[in-house]
Specification:
Blueprint: H1 3-12, H2 14-50, H3 59-74, H4 77-88, H5 96-121, H6 125-133, H7 138-168, H8 180-188, H9 197-230
Helix pairs in contact: 1-2, 1-9, 2-3, 2-5, 2-8, 3-5, 4-5, 5-7, 6-7, 7-9, 8-9
Length: about 230
């Protein structure tokens, strides 16, 4: 059986196609859940890190956020996932899907926080001074003047982080999850195929389609924001 025949068989054989789609659904579930956690967590960490509050108690959360970003960005994702699954959340009956979402969300949050921090710092300090001169509080200035401009700067980098997140989920099989990559391995071990190249190629096409769709959406948002700047 040629490679092309095996490639077509993955799509035409119901059990193979269903296996691949099951893995795809798991990959999407992890990616979407982790992305939401990462965006929220990253935004909070970035704002805490940039806070100019002189209150002594603010030193503690700023220190925690600094350690969190340093540790997460300085250690492999596979190691973080392993520790989360077999140490931190090693609870009988705890959903492995939730474990993966939390692990990837925490990892993504560290990178998102740095992207958002860089985006906020890229806004001219004169914008902040102008807001304060108009009588706005520091919080109102940040929310209504700085953040809207920072969003336009960070969308490309946030998009790149989301794309990286989707591809990184391919390691979840190490904790026994059945994602798209694991599905391709399972299909490739079948008697009719006995070859990993065809199902792995199909999995690669699925990943490519997801990334292309996400890239298209990000570029669409960027164009909309550029249009609003010209008005």
């Amino acid at each position: 059986m040629s490679f092309f025949e095996k490639f077509v068989l993955v799509f035409t054989e119901p059990k193979y196609l269903e296996s691949m789609l099951t893995g795809l659904r798991m990959t999407l579930a992890i990616s979407v859940g982790a992305a939401l956690i990462g965006l929220v967590l990253g935004t909070v960490v970035a704002l805490v890190g940039l806070s100019r509050s002189k209150h002594p108690l603010m030193k503690i959360p700023k220190l925690i956020c600094g350690i969190y970003v340093t540790v997460v960005r300085g250690t492999p994702m596979a190691l973080q996932l392993f520790i989360m699954a077999f140490v931190v959340l090693a609870i009988r009956g705890f959903p492995v899907l939730v474990t993966a979402i939390i692990a990837f969300g925490i990892n993504s949050g560290a990178y998102v926080s740095e992207n958002i921090r860089a985006g906020i710092l890229s806004v001219d300090v004169g914008q902040t001074e102008a807001g304060r001169s108009l009588g706005l509080s520091s919080g109102a200035t940040m929310w209504y003047i700085v953040i809207p401009q920072a969003i336009k700067n960070v969308i490309p980098s946030i998009g790149n982080e989301l794309i990286a997140l989707i591809k990184e989920t391919s390691i979840v099989s190490m904790i026994g999850m059945y994602d798209l990559t694991a599905a391709a391995k399972n299909v490739g071990s079948g008697q009719n195929l006995a070859n990993y190249l065809a199902p792995m190629t199909v999995a690669a096409l699925f990943y490519l389609a997801i990334v292309y769709l996400l890239t298209f959406i990000i570029k669409k948002i960027e164009r909309r924001l550029r249009q609003s700047d010209r008005r």
